Amino acid sequence: MTELQAVILGVLQGAGEFLPISSSAHLAIAPRLFGWEYQGLAYDVMLHLGTLLAVIIYFWKDWLEIFRDAFTAPRSPAGRMLPLLALASVPAAIAGLALNDYAETVFRDPLWIAFNLVFFSFFIYAADRKPAQALDEGAFSWRHALLIGLAQCIALMPGASRSGMTIMAALFIGYRRSSAARLSFLLSTPIILGAGLLEARKITPDQLTPAFAWGLAASFLSGLAFIWLLMAWMKRRNLTPFLVYRVLLGGAIALLFWR
User: Fold this and answer.
1) Element (H, E) at 243
2) Within 13 A of 240's CA, how many CA atoms are on the CB side?
3) Distance of CA 160 to the CA centre of its chain
4) Is the Cβ–Cβ distance between 91 and 146 less than 8 Å?
């Protein structure tokens, strides 16, 4: 893999992790489309570590408050956030361990990815158009954590989108768009960390090249940019442009890879 290829994959990861367009779909399809050697799911997951660093740095004040209040004021909204985020991560962690083989094989079929991109766009659209979205992060409860955590399990299938599924669930529950995005980003931290630790053992020494470092740097920098973009976007606008992109991409993939 060249440095340019690694940078492109890193940018796709940074965009897809936080925009509701599925980073795993882009990382699976791009090598097929451009004729590059696919580096494997472990490499894709390791690229996620760049976006993990991005979300930690972007929300460092929030994480500091969450960890501090978890021990000093556990009944406060920030103090309750840490155990609730942990609870919301449990379903995806269990599903990830149980379905890991499918995630590396069946789920990465281009036609399956195309179907997921289009199919779940309609559910995200319905959630995005739901009226009376007034809840903020202070309303986060164990029931909401479980519901959003269960929705996150769907994102094991490339094309569904982790951010798309978690934002969708939060919007259906009744959260404001900006609060739904913030919860989605905070929830990405434990799940990316867990997946990264699990897949790190599959990375071989020959993959730890300068190109790998360029990919991590690209995913980190683009991740910061796209977190900022979506947070600003969700304060004033809806998700329709991203959903149109998903449907067009899914249709294009289906046409290109239909046997």
Assistant:
1) helix 240-257
2) 4
3) 9
4) yes
The pLDDT tens digits for 108-139 are 789 999 999 999 999 999 999 988 678 999 89
Q: Is the dihedral angle over the CA atoms 129, 134, 138, 140 positive or is it negative? A: negative
Question: Which tokens is 226 given?
Answer: 């796209």
For the cut 80, the answer to whether the pLDDT of residue 107 exceeds it is no
How many other C-beta atoms are found inside a 10 Å radius of the C-beta of residue 47?
A: 27
Q: What are phi and psi of 135, to 5 degrees?
A: -75, 150
Residue 220 burial (C-beta neighbours within 10 Å; 0-12, 13-18, 19+): buried
Amino acid (1-letter code) at residue 227: I
Q: Against a cut of 0.70, is the pTM above it?
A: yes
Tokens of 69: 């209040």
What is the rounded CA–CA span in Å between residue 6 and residue 87?
34
The amino acid at residue 131 is P
Whether the CB-CB separation of 9 and 30 falls below 8 Å is answered with yes
Instruction: Tell me the per-residue pLDDT of 207-236, one tens digit each, with 9 for 90 and over.
Output: 678 888 898 999 999 999 999 999 999 998
